Amino acid sequence: MTVKISVLKERDEGGERRVALIPQVAEKLAPLGITFAMETGAGVASSYPDGTYKDVTFSPDRNALVADADIVLAVQPPTLETVRAMKPGAILIAFIYGRNNPDLVKALRDGKITCFAMELVPRISRAQAMDALSSQATLAGYYAVLMGAVHMPKILPMMTTAVGSLRAAQVLVMGLGVAGLQSLATAKRLGAITEGYDVRPESKEEAQSLGAKFVDTGVDATGQGGYARELTDDEKQKVRKALSDHIARSDLIVTTAAVPGKRAPRLIDAEQIKAMKPGAVIIDLGAEGGGNCEGTQAGQTVQVGPTTIVGPVNVPSMLAEQASELYSKNIMHLLQQIITKDKGLAPDFTDEVISGTALTHGGTITNDGIRTAVDPNSPAPPAPAPPPVIAPAATPAPTGPAANDAGKETAK
To answer: E.C. number, please (predicted)?
Structure first.
């Protein structure tokens, strides 16, 4: 059973350089009966030119590629035109961010496209290999410290010279999810004195395991799904009071806080920025969601009082080669759940990973939260039927001599 997969080239407008399929992953998936077609030049920006792919066909005609595909792979949300060119019943795998792209979600529903949105992969142990948000955040956290080092007027490690010693820089990481922990680890490896803060107290041990001090504010804002909830006004004031001194002492701050589907929480205000030391740098990884800092401008580097605030967007794309490798492997593990060599394409929607990642299927929006946000009047999907239970065949009653022997055994 051959499954046809087409891979899109990301559009240049957003500066996206990643690709959804790398050569090594294509080779690993081929034994499942998959044939691959890619848009010409899809991997060039991420250092995977067309010639590095084996047994993959290339075409510049995007609409023709998706019209013939059973599965379409992408990094960023595709255009409405691309979705409308897909055949009913086909599968799309990409980052979608449905709340921000309601028209796209409706087009997927109306076109009867099954969409697996990579940002919806459940954050459970069994799905870790498919968790694209985490794989990309790891690279963003690493690169954030390097960007900070480039913008700082001083070095990160302590250094002893013939004319005296240079003190190590003080680095504060705010938001200890995957990106934040990687930032702490990177800053520590580069020789900085590190501190970490998060509204979830359970992150204290993780910060300390990386050699960082934990800034305890006495506020617990643990939310669902591994994310932090929004703070109340009273909690915000308590946190602000506890953090202000740490912010003022820092040479470099990396902020990573995010609340899914909502504006990035404000962690640092203008008054706190004004109190920072001259030459201090903030790398705001929440810039795309509105920024964790007052004064952040997405995609720009600005000077606010004594502080340089960098608001990078799409940081994983800056490390496109390895970001593509990790993302492609995330997709590979998802594909291995929905494609088998014997059955071909057969996703099991009773599986919590498959159902949790699904955004649309069978002409419905299957994610409750996004359905409510995009189209509250859209009907809810029917509950998936459980897989059939096949009872073992009944053993026929013995006859003849065997029946007599069976009777004797029972009598014993």
So the answer is: 7.1.1.1
